[in-house]
Every structure is written in C-alpha cells, then in structure tokens.
Description:
By secondary structure, this protein is α+β, with helices and mostly antiparallel strands. The chain has two domains: 12-212, Potassium Channel Kv1.1, Chain A (2-Layer Sandwich), CATH 3.30.710.10; 279-607, Neuraminidase. It contains 15 helices and 37 strands. The protein has a four-stranded antiparallel beta sheet, with no helix packed on it. It has a four-stranded antiparallel beta sheet with strand order 8-9-12-13, with no helix packed on it. Helix 5 packs antiparallel against helix 6, helix 7 packs antiparallel against helix 8 (145-157) and helix 14 runs antiparallel to helix 15. The radius of gyration is 34 Å and the shape is elongated. The relative contact order is 0.07.
Amino acid sequence: xxxxxxxxxxxxxxxLLSGFQRLRSEARMCDVVLQTGxxxxxxxxxxxxxxxxxxxxxxxETTAERLAASVSLPALTPEGLEAILDFLYSGWLSMSPxxxxxxxxxxxxxxxxxxxxxxxxxxxxxxxxxxxxxYANLAECHALQDALVAANHTIAMEMRVLxxxxxxxxxxxxxQSLMAVLEAEEIPGxxxxxxxxxxxxxxxxxxxxxxxxxxxxxxxxxxxxxxSSDLVNLCHSHRVMATPLIRSQLTQALExxxxxSAQPIRQSRQSSLRALPNRVLLVGGGSSPDSPEQQVLxxxxxxxxxxxxxxxxxxxxxxxxxxxxxxxLFVIGGEEVVEEDGDVGELVTVATSxxxxxxxPRFGCWEEVDPMLERRTQFTCCVVEDVIYAIxxxxxxxxxxxHTSLASVEFYNMAEGSWRRAVTLPCPLHGHASAVLGNAxxxxxxxxxxxxxxxxxxxxxxxxxxxGFTQGDQRESSREVLYWEIxxxxxxxxxxxxxxxxxxxxxxxxxxxxxxxxxxxxxxxCDIEKYDPQADHWxxxxxxxxxxxxxxxxxAPSGSLLLFGGRKWSRGQEVTVKSVLEYDAxxxxxxxxxxxxxxxxxxxxxLLPLPD
Length: 612
C-alpha cells in the first residue's frame, strides 16, 4: 500500500476569508443583498450559509429566498448586521459597550454562536459598577447564564457604589437579577434596611406585580438584620409590607430581637450577616504582656490585610478566652487591667474576672451576659454543639497574692442565659490547652496545682521551668492528655496518650481529624506534634520557625494554622514580634506570610463573619 502524507496549511483559511472579504468590498460575485433599514450589504450566499444556521435554513432548497436577489432583515440594526458580517468574513468582531446590545442581538438572531460566545466573554471581562446592571439585563434577555451569574455577583459586590451613584440603573434591573442579588451571602458595606428600601422602590417603579412575585422578591430580604425600631416603621411603610407572608417575617424578626441570650443558637438565614467567614479576629493583647489593650484587629484571609474593629472590647484583659457561636463573639474571663489612680499610663492587674462579654457584629454592640460561676485566668474555653465550656484555670484571691488553681468545668446554657457545672477535671489545672474533635474535648499539658499556691515572679526564663510558680514549688509542667466525651454526660475525664513534650501556656488546634499541639512558654525546643485519635499516638512534626509563645492561633478555612505575633527570647530578653506564620499541615511546612501592623502578644483569635 502506497504511503501518503496529510498536511495542513493554517494560512489557507485566513487567505480564503481575506479573498471573500476583498470580493465583498469590491461588490464582486455577490449573489444576494441583505437589507436592514435603508442600508444594503452585498454578500455571498455560500459563505453566509456555511457560517450561520439561520442563513443555512433561509437559503434551503424549498425556501422562497433561495434565489432571491435581496433579503430584508427588518428586525436587525445596520450597526449590528455590519459587525456580524465583518466577523463572518474576517473572524474579527468589533464592538463596544454602546454597540454590544446590537451586535449580540444580531448574533443571536442569525444564530452565529461563536459571536454570541465572544459577546458573553466581552461582558464578563468588562463587568464593573458602571456596566454590571446593563449587562445583567442584557444577559438575562439573551439567556447568557454565565454572564448573568457574573453580573449579579458584581452588582452585589458593588452595591454600595450603585446605591450612591447608579440607583436609577438598579431600579431598571430585571427581577431575576434583583432576586439573585438579594439572595447573595455577601453585600459589602450595605445595611439591610437600604436593601429593603431599594426593593420597595423597585416594586413602585416596576409594578404592579402579582402578590406571589412581590412576596417572592421581598422574602429574599433579611429582616433580622434590621433594628427593632426600623422593623416597626417598616410594618407601616408600604402596602407590600402588609401581606400575611411579609408581616409574618417581620414578626419573626421582632421575636428574634427579644430572644436575648438565646440569639446565637436561634440563628436563621433571616438573621445571618451578608458576609463570608473570612476574617480572623485578634482580640486584645498588646506590645507587652502587662500592657493589654482593648483593640480588636481583623485579618482578611483573602488579601492578608489588617484593620481595626470600630468597637474594642469593654475591658483591658489578659489571659482571657474567646470563641464564636451563631455569628456572635464571646470574650470570657481573664485578668482585668486598669490604670492605677494617680499614675497615668501605669497599668495594674486588679482582679481575676468571671465576666462574659458578647459582641454582635450585626449592630456593632457589646453586651455583658451572665457571668461564669468561677473567676478564671489561664484557663481554656471551647465550643461543642453551640455550648461554651470553660475548663480549669486559676484565680487570685482579692487583696492577696494567693492564686488558687481550679479543677472545675462549667458550660453556658444559652437557652436560659446561665452557667452550669460540668464534670470536674481529675485535679486542678492551669496553663493547659484544649481542642475539640467530634463531640469530645481534649485537654493537654498545663501545671497540676493544689489550692493556695503563693506565686512570686521569677526573673528571666529558665529552660525546663515555666514562669508563674515559686522557686520552692518544684512541680513541672505536664505531658498528660485528658479526654471527655460530651455525649456521655456524667462520665469522668479519661487519660489518653501523653505528649512527648511537657508544655505550659501552649496551644492546641484541630485540623483534618488530627489534633496539633504547638509551643508553650520557654520550651527548649520548637517542636510541634500531632495526635491521631484512632491510634492514640503523638507524632513530632517540623519545628516552628521561631521559638515564640503567647501568640494568637487560628485555624483557617483553607486547612492551615495561623500564628499571630507572640514573644521570643533574644539576647537574654523577651521581645514581642510582628510575624504571622502559616503551617501547611499537608506539607508539614512553615512560612511567614505577612507581618502585624506592630508587635503583639497575648492576643486571642477566632473566626467571625464581619460586614465590611
């Protein structure tokens, strides 16, 4: 069999189109004229039929137009037809935001799908505050789903600008897009009451709508994000708010505001912030351990930028705990620090606290809720199934320098707004760490202590010994790990495999079904270790980049650990650092990803959705 080669010339197709374009420009060998308005376009049937399903059908064997000298296309504009013909003859499609509607309409009418796809890409790439509303209407009209989704997302993200500068375009938005925007989980910088006013104005301008469609539109709003006073005013603001469905939703929102302490466990979509849980909160801390501040820093995980929350915590605290439930921030216990009378800037610790503060980011307000049964510092708190548990710690007896360690455990019953006793630890413990895995709480390390310990500060850091206990108290920090299964109620704490390193003032975190134990205070090495609950075994991992302690720790949604600031030893002195470190658990790798605005130690971290 004789062999042969099949070769391809990429320039032939280009030359073929160029030849047809030249013939068209010279009006040579054209066998049909397309007319729209008063403009005529001489063309070649063969090229049109091979490029467009519409022309293929139009010039079929049984149609009247098969041999017609001219074809009228009154539904098209000259601008749109000229752009599509240029595309068919050259492969180049010329358009601008002004001519896009004509070009897209012509491409859809003539069934030139390649040109339609180019128009959709043009829209998607050109989305901004000035174009998103118009492009959303255009995409909805021509059923361009990808462009429509992208345009609706841009409207939600640019809503603040649009309400201020392009409200008229919002009021001309198609109802599908408006409902999609009101369904969005993130609308930065816009209060819900502004969205409600927009929806009412849109109904006034585009109505009357059927009761079903009107209710469907308004039901996408989140009335739980509106203050009680504004809700009362809304009830009487417009006839569309008086329908049984909307009145019911307004009533539910008012009832939500009356829930008090139970609000975090009674969350619904109506009361959920339009914000993604992408912010790490750094609560309290300061440039030195004895000078805590009331500030709350926020860290945006997407752009790795820091900013300050407008509302700082109500007290200066150290050795406190934080957690989040239902979109609320809780700040619990610790030691209150105040400026000493007569000495401006001189800070002193006045008391171990049992106070609990709750922050509502919906309205930017702090509220003091029921206090813990015990005053606690150097304790841990964790959340299991929307219940806060406070574990161990110690407190200072007022007027003395006597510090009492605690074995008690208590939990916060949000439905009742009160704290209750839980199963106590086997012995008093402070400076420990805790983590949650499934429905179980794990507690590790710390210093087991008896009541009535008198502590004196040890100057400097001594390897192998933790600060905060007397030179006469020779007890070391612990390697032990305790375990408590919540679902078994009164079952006592059990022991699990001990860590390989005794730790005090350290941190634990849960990640991908494992528990990680990180550095504590004055540890001679920088090793971290991982606990496998199935094997009941600890494994040492790659050491931390720097031997820091008193840092903030957060678990990122991406599955990495983030360490913020802390202190380290440098040339015999404690130095507060600005580093933000990230631990990649899959690769067992540390790296510095950015730096804090200034050195920070003693901060406590948690994740919370926040409005921009």
